[in-house]
Specification:
single chain, 203 residues, 2 domains, 9 helices, 0% strand
Amino acid sequence: MDYNSNRKKLVLPEYGRHIQKMVNHALTLEDREERKKSAQTIISVMGNMFPHLRDVSDFKHKLWDHLAIMSDFKLDIDFPYEIPVRENLYTPPKTVPYRENKIRFRHYGGLVDELIKKAIELESEDEKKQLTMLIAAHMKKSLFHWNRDSVTDERIFNDIKKMSQGKLEVEEGAVIPEYRDNSYRGKKKRDQKKRPNPKKSIS
């Protein structure tokens, strides 16, 4: 038996071995015009395999790119598009550096650190107080999703003081608006509806 595991590995497996055989055959054609006709036929068959992508703007361009790749860039024809360069195709992507700054309170996220820095820089005390309370409301929401059992205004105000190194303080008696997690409440109601009614089961 001729198993696929014993055959040469396909360059683009999504097109199957029959398309690869057609590409290999096109490479053997000596007449340039015949190679071009063969390539156009292959492109047509490849396009029919993915009819849902025909409306994509660069779909045809990708098909010709794939044909060049499957031929190992050896198909000598006039391509209707500029095909990729082999060296660029297999060049590994550049490494994306991680942010080096450390977040002390990871459950609040890096955005809160940035907002606190902006609040400290504000000259207007009224604006500073308003922004501080907005930050506190956002922190309450984040803390609620992280651990709903430990959410208190006092804890959040203390965290703001620590994160700002004492440069931001909240007026005594300030209260953060209550946060309501509608998605959690909706889930709770759905779970309650799913529970069997013991009275109905007894009757």
